Amino acid sequence: MFTKPVHILLVEDSPTDACLVQELLKAGTNGNADVVWARNLTDAMGQMTQRRFDVVISDLNLDKSWGLNTLHNIMGRVPHLPVVVISGMEDEMLRLDTIRHGAQAYLLKWQFDSKQLVGTLQKAILRKKVEETILAT
């Protein structure tokens, strides 16, 4: 569980999926998550310039952005932030490519509960901090 509020950008074009992820985060953090929902990549890019986030959760397939292109666009804008991908695509090669291209984790939609989601976010944030520290030395 997070000991202080965590600021999360959720990039998801499905209102149903976004609502479910938000509910899982609310339950898993005892309300200690500030979640901003962006419905598309354009909205997400705008949010990234207006606010400070600790982590990004993103689907790969959005309106006008698909697959690794989505990940590259997000990471290009906020390379210092950990990105956790949630996807409905059960494709092992895509999962591996996503991790190779910098995502901290790849979760299949609705094959995780609130505890797993929050644990994944905590690990992603910590792993990204360690990476940044190593790169700085």
Global outline: globular
Helix content: 40-55%
Strand arrangement in the largest pleated sheet: 2-1-3-4-5
Order of helices and strands: EHEHEHEHEH
Q: Approximately how much beta-strand content do the residues carry?
A: 15-25%
Distance between the termini: 30 Å
Radius of gyration: 14 Å
Average pLDDT number: 93
Oligomer: single chain
DSSP E strands, number:
5
Global structural class: alpha/beta
**Total helical segments:** 5
| Unreliably modeled segments | none
Give a quick account of the main beta sheet: strands, pairing sense, barrel closure: 5 strands, parallel
Structure characterization notes:
The structure is a single chain. The protein is of the alpha/beta class and 137 residues long. It contains five helices and five strands, in the order E-H-E-H-E-H-E-H-E-H. It has helices at residues 15-28, 41-50, 67-77, 92-100, 114-136; strands at 6-11, 33-38, 55-58, 83-87, 105-108. The longest helix has 23 residues, at 114-136.
List the helices and strands and how they pair.
Blueprint: E1 6-11, H1 15-28, E2 33-38, H2 41-50, E3 55-58, H3 67-77, E4 83-87, H4 92-100, E5 105-108, H5 114-136
Parallel strand pairs: 1-2, 1-3, 3-4, 4-5
Short description:
The chain has 137 residues and is α/β, with parallel strands linked by helices. The protein has helices spanning 15-28, 41-50, 67-77, 92-100, 114-136, and strands at residues 6-11, 33-38, 55-58, 83-87, 105-108.
